[in-house]
Design goal:
Distance between the termini: 82 Å
Number of domains: 2
Radius of gyration: 35 Å
Helix content: 10-25%
Strand content: 35-45%
Shape: elongated
Oligomer: single chain
Largest sheet: 7 strands, antiparallel
Number of strands: 30
Strand order of the largest sheet: 18-27-20-21-22-23-26
């Protein structure tokens, strides 16, 4: 009887042992599956996304054939791999080109670029502006796959804007057909003098061109522009998600009608010889000539003024120049006489050409307080001037004070502006601008109709 009981207990132990072993195996396999499943799924998603990347690279080349080439239509097939494709022509992504020349900026272009975007979880792949981009989870984790259509070589900016038109979406697994069509009639926005007389090349009248790109992929745009073109960018994150590119046009070295204000954009303060020419041909001069210019009509500090006046023993063409610079420390004042060049004599009317950069050295400091802005100038001008001291020539004085109110400012008419005919007057204000420069601008819009099927 006892022998049988021992055999029964042994049999029971074997069953329990097998049960425990099976339980350990089940739990182990379960843990492995639990831990490995996300990794396996992530690997599958990575493979899916890599295939979609390749599909969007093909999409980029085929859209270029439709928009920039001679092909009227193209078909692209992409396997969605459980993701979603959305085409949106009223998307957050926009591009604008702004022209600064008069008191109010002029918008040359401002429109949505349109996007084709694939989403799988938190990963995104998109086509916009002629390029393709990949966005990984996280706000700043963005890369460029193929470059967008933004071409700048240091002198010429070329923007072939590819605008996608459509609002459609499709999701689930399977092959998606994307059709792209265009009538190949590009819309030339610049140069376009029928739109605006100032929309012409070359840009030689002292203005700035700003390109603003708004996009979820703005960091990739900024990196591309900085690394692969000669442009410099400013980025604005958070809610804006913008890239700003500002280019300075060189001013014209030929005479312009004196139609105040005289505008200065991007004055190069790093070049001590940036100011090349500054003269005004003053038309129909009278004995009461008294012409003020100021960089601030509201006298907002700091600001610069200069006055041209007919007086003194220098004959009919004699003029006196007074320059004042104001900031929180007070005012610095310079006075000098110039023998203007008398031209266009006819009866009692004549014109005078005043060269403000004249090398005449009879310039005196006349402020009641010592100067303070010159101490950091390069030798031999790094000094403190007191009333009655002789100073540099006109070129150096204007260069110095224009640098202090730069890079962007205007010379507006001041309180006294009479004794001459503005319509018969002209000026030349020629200077070096801060890089990056622009001489030629080309903007062409290419509209493309997109269809999902």
């Amino acid at each position: 009887m006892k022998k049988q009981m021992r055999h029964a207990e042994n049999a029971q132990s074997e069953v329990v042992g097998y049960s425990l072993l099976l339980g350990v195996l089940v739990i182990g396999v379960g843990i492995v599956i639990l831990l490995a499943a996300p990794i396996i799924q992530e690997s599958k998603n990575d493979a899916y996304l890599k295939n979609v990347e390749q599909g969007f690279t093909v999409l980029d080349s085929k859209v270029s054939m439709v928009g920039l080439g001679n092909s009227p239509s193209q078909l692209v097939q992409i396997y969605t791999q459980a993701g979603e494709i959305v085409i949106d022509d009223d998307t957050y992504s926009r591009i604008s080109v702004i022209f600064y020349n008069w008191s109010d900026p002029i918008e040359v272009y401002n429109s949505s670029m349109g996007t084709v975007e694939y989403t799988l979880g938190q990963d995104k792949i998109a086509y916009e502006g002629g390029g393709t981009f990949r966005k990984y989870p996280g706000d700043d984790n963005v890369i460029m796959i193929t470059p967008p259509e933004f071409h700048y070589n240091g002198e010429t900016l070329t923007l072939p804007i590819i605008k996608i038109n459509s609002n459609q979406s499709i999701g689930g697994s399977g092959v998606v057909n994307l059709y792209f069509q265009s009538d190949n009639t590009p819309n030339v926005l610049f140069p376009n003098r029928s739109e605006n007389p100032e929309f012409k090349n070359p840009l030689l009248i002292g203005k700035q061109v700003e390109v603003v790109i708004k996009s979820d992929y703005y960091r990739a745009w900024a990196k591309y522009i900085e690394e692969r073109t000669d442009a410099q960018v400013s980025t604005y994150g958070e809610n804006k998600k913008e890239v700003h590119v500002l280019l300075n046009a060189r001013p014209n070295d030929q005479a312009q009608d004196l139609n105040p204000p005289m505008e200065v954009y991007g004055f190069n303060t790093t070049n001590e010889s940036a100011l090349k020419q500054f003269n005004i041909t003053i038309g129909d001069v009278k004995n009461n000539l008294n012409m003020d210019f100021t960089t601030s009509t509201s006298k907002t500090l700091p600001y610069l003024t200069f006055n041209t006046k007919k007086e003194g023993g220098l004959g009919l063409a004699g003029i006196t120049i007074e320059l004042n610079y104001y900031d929180t420390s007070g005012v610095e004042t310079w006075n000098w006489d110039v023998q203007g060049i008398k031209i266009d004599i006819g009866g009692e009317d004549y014109s005078v050409e005043a060269d403000y950069l004249d090398d005449y050295d009879g310039i005196d400091y006349s402020s009641g307080n010592p100067s303070w802005t010159w101490i950091n100038e390069t030798p031999p001008y790094n000094t403190i001037y007191n009333s009655g001291d002789s100073g540099p020539n006109g070129r150096k004085i204007f260069q110095h004070y224009m640098s202090l109110v730069s890079p962007n400012f205007n010379f507006y008419p001041g309180d006294k502006f009479d004794g001459f005919d503005v319509d018969e007057s002209s000026y030349v204000l020629f200077y070096d601008v801060n890089p990056p420069h622009i001489t030629y601008l080309h903007i062409v819009e290419h509209k493309i109709q997109a269809t999902l099927a």
